[in-house]
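Quick one, tokens below. Sequence please?
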């Protein structure tokens, strides 16, 4: 099994490069499909899930917010739950044992420790 992960930023062309590479190698391709799977699993709208995961407010989370995480959790909404689901979906792609290209979604980090069996 070969897994190619492509990290990207807006405007980098990573999505197009990933798709072309997957087509060239005849590998499975995962990008928006990850968002669709998260939305399906959480029974949420894909547009909402994508917007929530692209909102980087969770990256600057304070250690505490008025002596509790609850105030911050309420302010950031469903992001923690969605990030955990994203982790689960990306890891399940890696464990499926198929040749694939995964674009974005921190797949390089999430699948970096994956060992072939």
């Amino acid at each position: 099994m070969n897994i190619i992960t492509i990290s990207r930023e807006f405007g980098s062309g990573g999505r197009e490069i990933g798709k072309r590479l997957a087509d060239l190698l005849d590998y499975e391709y995962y990008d928006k499909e990850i968002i669709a799977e998260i939305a399906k699993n959480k029974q949420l709208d894909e547009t909402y899930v994508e917007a929530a995961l692209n909102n980087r407010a969770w990256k600057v989370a304070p250690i505490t917010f008025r002596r509790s995480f609850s105030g911050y959790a309420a302010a950031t909404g469903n992001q923690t739950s969605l990030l955990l689901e994203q982790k689960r979906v990306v890891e399940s792609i890696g464990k499926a044992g198929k040749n694939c290209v995964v674009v974005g979604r921190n797949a390089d980090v999430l699948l970096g420790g994956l060992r072939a069996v």
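The CA atoms of residues 32 and 103 lie 9 Å apart. The longest strand covers residues 3-6.
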